[in-house]
Amino acid sequence: MLSWIGDNMTFFWQTLCDMRLTDIFDIGLMALILFYAYRFIQERRAGKLALGVVLLFLLMVLSDTLDMYVTRFLLENVFQMGIIVVIILFQPEIRSALEKIGGNPITSIKGIGEQKDPSETLTVIKEVSEAMGDLAEEKTGALVVFERTTRLGDIVKTGTVLNADVSSFLLKNIFFNKAPMHDGATIISGNRIHSAGCFLPLSLNEDIIKDLGTRHRAGIGMSENSDAVVVIVSEETGTISVAIDGKLKRGYDADTLAAELEGLLITDNIYKKIKNRKGTKK
What we know:
Layout: H1 2-18, H2 21-41, H3 46-65, H4 69-80, H5 82-89, H6 91-110, H7 118-137, E1 142-146, H8 153-156, E2 160-165, H9 168-174, E3 185-189, E4 192-198, H10 214-225, E5 229-233, E6 240-244, E7 247-252, H11 254-265, H12 268-281
Parallel strand pairs: 1-3
Antiparallel strand pairs: 1-5, 2-4, 3-4, 5-6, 6-7
Helix pairs in contact: 3-4, 7-9, 7-11
């Protein structure tokens, strides 16, 4: 036993001594990829599919160990088409992940020196929050999408391009229940109302509570497929909700919604500077 432990310790030490800097980087990079892959799928429908794939793989290993010929033959044939099957099963999640990976760094680099005026963003947030508060009191449904780094050109094309200044009055007119575009989503991009009456992708998450209707499912679906911030007002209850990264937070009023949007749409450093400036003026 001691000899076995000694041999393994010697092997382990020799392996550490032979490791290059690139090997350490390689291991760290793979660990990071696996960690973010786990975080990405753990609260999505893909989490259950991934668990099923893992269980099938463990069953194949077990069948190989116990010489279960029929089971092993069937599973080996299944896994021969494994890559294609995974792409088909995880297509929505793979697309969402690639859009976020490709969108965030590139947009950040392009956006250097082109950052939007934070005071203008605060004005937009104030107008949107005021409109959502009024619509909530009237129990008028609304769906507003704030575009961030993921471009929503394909979504914009489904609606009517307005390219208008953001105002509480205009938003309330768009979502007036007899207005032609009230059932669709309004896209805010570059601190302007880019388009209205847009159709959003519905979430396929089976864990969404049944009380939520199509408007909420569309808002969650949009947040699953991009890094957009989506504000939803329920037509049935007047509840204001915010969807981001596939998660829905509910129970906002005009003031708490404004605070939430400020934290999500304005970077921390700029946000603190603006708050300090406001405090100084008072």
